[in-house]
Write a structure and sequence with these properties.
The protein has 10 helices and 8 strands. With 275 residues, it is α/β, with parallel strands linked by helices. The chain has one domain: Aldolase class I (TIM Barrel). Strand 7, helix 8 and strand 8 form a beta-alpha-beta unit. Helix 3 packs parallel to helix 4 and helix 8 packs parallel to helix 10. The longest helix is centred in the last third of the chain and has 23 residues. It binds 6-sulfanyluridine-5'-phosphate (S5P). 6-sulfanyluridine-5'-phosphate binds next to strand 8 and helix 9. This is Orotidine 5'-phosphate decarboxylase.
């Protein structure tokens, strides 16, 4: 099977295909820092999450959070995360997986304790409610220059986001236009070459990445960075426990992030034919 055309274009050369400020920022950072690694800091303490971010920040293009799992969430957390994002040059992705009607998600995005839209460059949504979810989030996020990913596939065993669901999710994004929807959480390039036009570029971000473990006891399934980037054409690899969960203390977390960055970047160079 011939490679997907998008995967043969360097990240920096894809910037011109985007108008969304967050998409442009992600591609610029990836090129500048030579990293396609996103670290997911799924710890229950915001203080601890910031410590992980300080250690891995130099190696990543993106830090992904689940702000609703922090027991000590305060606005001070997001202030410090924003400061670190500038100092260490990464984008913030709140993995909120919105899944409600447009009016509700616009409130969940802008309001409540977390006020996600005020600090998170990127967020994501399930397509299950229909296009109103994009419209609701866009109303809040687009004026702020934020970006949105739709979940086209999931890494977990038995996911229902397959086949026609995935195809219709792609179509929903395409119909919405690329001002706000910049790509997908997916395990494959769901932007099939025959469905996209010239310069129609989407960012595919793949979770479920591990260099050692193959899965967990709750359905998570892991692939290697090479499998994701070379074989499946992912643009960004998302790693959680493989990095912050490594044994050996602070230095081990830092060096594990570097190990994943190197593996992800080597895979990217291989797919460009630069190896
Ligand atoms: O399909 C998915 C989508 C997401 S965003 N599978 C996932 O695992 N994720 C998220 O990626 C998940 O919520 C978690 O934050 C991260 C994977 O964590 P890990 O510890 O298994 O690497």
């Amino acid at each position: 099977m011939s490679p997907h055309p998008t995967t043969l274009i360097p990240y920096a050369e894809r910037i011109k295909f985007h108008t969304n400020p967050t998409a442009i920022k992600i591609l610029e950072i990836m090129d500048r820092k030579k990293t396609n690694l996103a670290v997911s800091v799924d710890v229950t303490s915001a203080k601890e999450a910031l410590e992980v971010v300080r250690r891995v920040g130099a190696s990543v293009c993106m830090v992904k959070t689940h702000c609703d799992i922090f027991e000590d969430f305060t606005p001070a957390f997001t202030e410090e995360l924003l400061r670190l994002s500038k100092e260490l040059d990464f984008v913030i992705f709140e993995d909120r997986k919105f899944a409600d009607i447009g009016n509700t998600v616009s409130l969940q995005y802008s309001s409540g304790i977390h006020k996600i839209s005020t600090w998170s460059d990127l967020t994501n949504a399930h397509s299950v409610p229909g296009p109103g979810i994009i419209a609701g989030l866009s109303k809040v996020g687009l004026p702020l220059g934020r970006g949105l990913l739709l979940l086209g596939e999931m890494s977990s065993a038995g996911s229902l986001a397959v086949g026609g669901y995935t195809e219709q999710t792609f179509k929903m994004a395409q119909d919405a236009g690329r001002e706000f929807v910049i790509g997908f959480i997916a395990q494959n390039r769901i932007d099939k070459p025959e469905k996209i036009g010239e310069g129609e570029d989407y960012l595919i971000m793949s979770p479920g990445v591990g260099l050692s473990a193959k899965g967990d006891s709750l359905g998570q399934q892991y692939r290697t960075p090479r499998e994701c980037v070379v074989e499946s054409g992912a643009d960004v690899i998302i790693v959680g426990r493989g990095i912050y969960g490594v044994e050996g203390g602070e230095e081990a977390v830092k060096s594990e992030a570097e190990r994943y960055r190197e593996a992800g970047w080597k895979a990217y160079e291989e797919r460009l034919g630069r190896k």
